[in-house]
């Protein structure tokens, strides 16, 4: 297993390099200058601009520019944002906790709903309740997350007035206090619900099918024969076996959270990385754009890697490949 | 010896009952699936209405009509008018044209690329396979939405309109199909008929086209329905975010993006609810058809 993990980790390095090259050339292909955040926009003297360009390494050959950029990037120097006039690393540091908070909360919501629904449906398959849960999941899969988000805002924020529809925290509350955390949870709940609903359906159906599969196995018969209560059989013996394959979903969740965060954060005007990415595209803020694109690619890469490694743990046959 | 007269002419003419081809069996099973048939009829009606939109309506959708802004639904404007005074119902039809067209084109191109790459990798194996599959992994490792948005931002304005979006989505989306087709071809090529076809001198392209592809076609068809639904969602999500088809082109996603203005979202549901509902129904219908097709080609299911 260690060998397999190491091999996969090493295989990631060329992939990362290739992706960074692609991102670099994409940024070069965009209209405008990738490092223009460093140049004072009020000084339009051509001599000054030329001097700055020379200093920033504009006139160097492309491979030298790439080398400068990537060595800076690895050391945490992402350049300076054109729009916000502060280093991109600070900008990312401001927004990252919000996105992480949203991601973790949506995962918690996914797990809660999926376990509740999957265990109910798996315990009493082919009943009315099971069909209802199945139908509900079918709807959830068919509704795109941004439409779910729009409807959620319309009903919960505007009609019922239960939740706020924008922002991540109440600004009037002091940071770090209990009220601040509660306000954060309150603001994040609706976007997290929408984001979490995406994964719930597949989790639920998977858990349900696995519980039904397992309930016909010999160890369940043994447990029944020795008089174990039915609830203990389902909640301990079967569930423990059915949860193991579920962990492989975790890697894919990382990937779908990246895509989901883009959309959900925009709908709820939630100040996270996804929203930052979209505004940086709109404002042609290249340093931010390149950093975020590379970061998202890295997350997806790590997500796929985690999925593969977890698969290897669950199903040893895969490791040989 | 007695000559047996041929007394029963009927006996001669009756042929043994012809067994149905797998396709006919699948078709019959599909026709019996009520949900799938209703979905299919819905999709066909939607497609016909959308593609005939310029002939059934005479309203000019591109013109901004200040006198008729934000009107609620009435007999004149069935679904009301939007913030620029354009009829929502007519725009819905035109939007269907764009959304369905983008969905179908992307699906077609992705299938084409994916099947070619997957079939070549699976059939030849060895170095060709590992090269092509590394490349596929490379493409699959890009976060889809992020790169579509970046590429769209680069190409926008240089190349015209909807074509950019179709090209970009297709370019980034074929990895999954390639993987699937490869794995199917890998198991299928072990059969004797492939060996027979190769040993009588069939060239690889002919063996793939004539012998292997028809046998993986059912998988491809099922995958096509999933792709079609996904592509419609991708188009509308991108357009909603403002990075899809150009703003002036009506598409369901562009119509939905009006809901980003709080007053439209709160007070004028007739502008954004119809595209949302029709989009969800379309995706549901495609999913049901996909399930129906999958079921119809599955010899083990009897329903």
UniProtKB/TrEMBL annotation, chain A:
Chief location: membrane
Domain named ABC transmembrane type-1: residues: 96-307
UniProt KW keywords: Cell membrane, Membrane, Transmembrane, Transmembrane helix, Transport
TM spans (from-to): 9-30, 100-122, 143-165, 185-207, 243-268, 288-314
Cross-referenced InterPro entries: BPD_transp_1_N (IPR045621), MetI-like (IPR000515), MetI-like_sf (IPR035906)
Compartments reported by the entry: Cell membrane
Topological category with respect to the lipid bilayer: Multi-pass membrane protein
Keyword Glycoprotein attached: no
Similarity section: Belongs to the binding-protein-dependent transport system permease family.
Protein name (database record): Peptide ABC transporter permease
Organism expressing this protein natively: Pontibacillus salipaludis
Lineage of the species this protein comes from: Bacteria, Bacillati, Bacillota, Bacilli, Bacillales
UniProtKB/TrEMBL annotation, chain B:
Domain of life: Bacteria
Membrane topology designation: Multi-pass membrane protein
Transmembrane segments annotated in the record for this chain: 35-56, 100-126, 138-156, 162-181, 212-233, 270-290
Species name: Pontibacillus salipaludis
CDD domains, A to Z: TM_PBP2
Family: Belongs to the binding-protein-dependent transport system permease family.
PROSITE patterns: ABC_TM1 (PS50928)
Pfam family, one: OppC_N
Protein's recorded name: Peptide ABC transporter permease
Chain spans, region Disordered: 1-20
Cellular location(s): Cell membrane
Alphabetized UniProt keyword annotations: Cell membrane, Membrane, Transmembrane, Transmembrane helix, Transport
Residues covered by the ABC transmembrane type-1 domain: 96-290
